[in-house]
Fold this protein.
Amino acid sequence: MRREKQKLLCLALLLLATCCATADTIWDYEAVNSIGFGIHPKVNADASNPANKVTVEGVVIGGSHEILNPGPPAAMGIQYTLFIQDDTSDRGGIQVWAGSWFYGDPMWTDLRQTDYIDVQPGDRVRVTGFLADAGRGKVVINHRHSNNPDLVFHVEILGHPGMPDPVLIKSVSECNYFDETRSGGGELYQTRWVMLHGVSVGSGAWTNNSLLTVSDRTGSVGLLLSAMGDFTGNPKPEFPISVVGIFDQEDTTAPYTEGYRIWVKKQADVARALDFCREVRTCALGEMSSLKDKVVSRVFPGFFYVQDETRTGGVRVESSRAVAPGNRVCIHGSVCSIGNEKALNPRYLIVQESDEAPKPIGVTSRELWCSSGLDVYGLLVRCVCTVKEKQEGGVYLLVDDAGKTIKAQTYGFELPSEGTRVAINAVASQSEGAPLLLIASTSDVEVIQ
Ligand SMILES: [Ca+2]
């Protein structure tokens, strides 16, 4: 009996040891010293020893054709690179890189089929190879600038979870400095998918492969427009922008503590940064626009509304993402129209911490019909009405407090019977010149006795 117990104990300890012997992560491999040089033991380790290879996994935020031209054929300037974000934690990312001119055309053409394979953004990959820090501010996986087949790194696609949401960098001053501990600054964000909102573009040409700066009142940081992008021919933004891209560093002289930049892949990743929800109405259809820190008011099938914290205005967002009233969101997307209403179709959506659900603004017929000069469209309102008539498709006619007929739209539930007086929480919209109340659920309908 005692022997059995000992056996079980040994087995348990063995299992525990197996579980806890976690491999180093991308974040571990990216550790730096005080001059920003990689300090992990595998960095620049002897490449004649295969045991010095590492294996990393993550989601690709910069695909094989988005940043550099990978060919084939091989030639000067033909390079293969991926940016991979650790998708098991909120930190860490690594670039992989190979230059075709070290190999020549036949070998490069082969390698592009076997190891340096085509990869789409949003693919999940596993990469096995040697770590290097060539003194540019980053630890990468590369082939040590050699044509030795033993030094080729291998890329394998594991799946396609899709692109992650970017992380919002709240101001430039959070990302444009070096901190060896990586608790803040550029090293924290390096090779992560990020958004900066409300920054102005500095001097320089708005063309592919152009390095500019963006700044807000807290500082400036680099902005690199991808050589494989579609920037050339578009006007340089003369207004504050939201930008989504890969946080990167390139500093070729010691100490490697500068040269932070956001590497932007596509023109659509640059949007007009708006302050207020209502400004969406003044944007052209199709224009990329962005709102930061807006509050979800109500959620409907296939869309939701957000409003300014100050309840100045609100706007419809076309998305089926799981959000709840009170969530704070950042939206970077194109302006579209739903009927006569302008809405945002998100390209990027960041769902942040949740506050209490916003309180509705009490309104009367005057505000609903806009006769008081106050514009409540897009906002969560509360009003008292009488149910008049049920129509098709969840639409109801109601009589407002001034005796005027307005409409309400419900989503899979019934309003109380005709003649019932109700207080309704709803998002104020319009239909054919008349107020339309969008009611999200029965809990927003209170019968008044
Ligand atoms: Ca760095």
Notes: The pocket of calcium ion is lined by residues 32, 36, 137-138, 187, 190, 249 (CB under 6 Å). The mean pLDDT is 95.
